[in-house]
Amino acid sequence: xxxxxxxxxxxxxxxxxxxxxxxxxxxxxxxxxxxxxxxxxxxxxxxxxxxxxxxxxxxxxxxxxxxxxxxxxxxxxxxxxxxxxxxxxxxxxxxxxxxxxxxxxxxxxxxxxxxxxxxxxxxxxxxxxxxxxxxxxxxxxxxxxxxxxxxxxxxxxxxxxxxxxxxxxxxxxxxxxxxxxxxxxxxxxxxxxxxxxxxxxxxxxxxxxxxxxxxxxxxxxxxxxxxxxxxxxxxxxxxxxxxxxxxxxxxxx
Length: 253
What we know:
The chain has a single domain, classed as Aldolase class I (TIM Barrel), CATH 3.20.20.70. Helix content is 43%, strand content 15%. It is built from 11 helices and 8 strands. The chain has an 8-stranded parallel β-sheet. Helix 7 packs across helix 8. It is globular. The relative contact order is 0.16.
């Protein structure tokens, strides 16, 4: 049975001191409340991983990174390997976020290389896929997300899929204030699940958590999470506000 996963993507926000303050605020918000119904992850800037991991000890909050390199080590200035992230305290990693694709030249092939390296290194992967506005207007959303999913998961075994979460993030709804309707989100998450069924069979498709990642917030989380194929959220701006993040967590219970 698949689980809800509520994951915050802090992006390029908060140094170590402010990061710990936010974690302490989130801990206070969820203190004494039911959290067993979903996994909670905070994906934080690399400089924050170690201090955030320490602050999350003994809590239901897990720690994730925002990117990982495909090599185990080497002359890749500024990059971080899966081993480095694990040693710092990360358990999860976001791969293929639209901002990485848009601003840093990430491609479906490099996403696949990173996914393979992360899984081989022992990290759990939050794999992002999603269409641009013009792709939605051309009515090729299904083709785009199917291609992204298939390429990203090339050579990933059925056993490894137990450590893969897929986040559907319509690029036109990230940081724009626009949000896919609950029906739109459910439809595309269902398309992704059908792709997984073709790749791995119905059992793995039904067991894989598929998040919605396009401007989910405290106001719309409950409706989005009520959809059959939406199993959580990859949360941007709302994850930097402890009360809002706690509200989303509560909606997933």
